[in-house]
Amino acid sequence: MKYGKLYAVIAMVGIIVGGYWVISWQANRINLLIDTNKKLTVALEEQKSINTDYQARIMRLNQLDIQYTQELANAKNEISRLRDISERHPERVYIKAECPKSKTTSATSLASATTARPTDTAIRNYWLLRERIAESEKIIRGLQDYVRQECAK
Q: What keywords appear on the UniProt entry (predicted)?
């Protein structure tokens, strides 16, 4: 009977030591999980901040795009308006030009002289160049604003 009590005490000590070991192991695991959770929380907050910054940058870029797209549309409308006016009233279009002097002197009168007019191709090219200049100007200004607002920060 003495041995039975001894075995019971040894079993109790084993259970207590085993329980302590399991609790200690679980506590270490919990501490590790808490540390990992803190690191992940910090990383999540940083990512939220980055995402918020990206959203703000995207909004600013979108506003720049809208602004310069509208300005470009207005410039194209103005060029179209001027083109329509010039086609309806060609006598109101003034182009600086010089007529070459003739080498022979003739007794022709001014009544037989014709006004200097550019060719149809020259007129089309003129309007095409005006459109491209307007587009280039708006694109360059938009890119400059983007660089000032986003890249210089």
A: Membrane, Transmembrane, Transmembrane helix
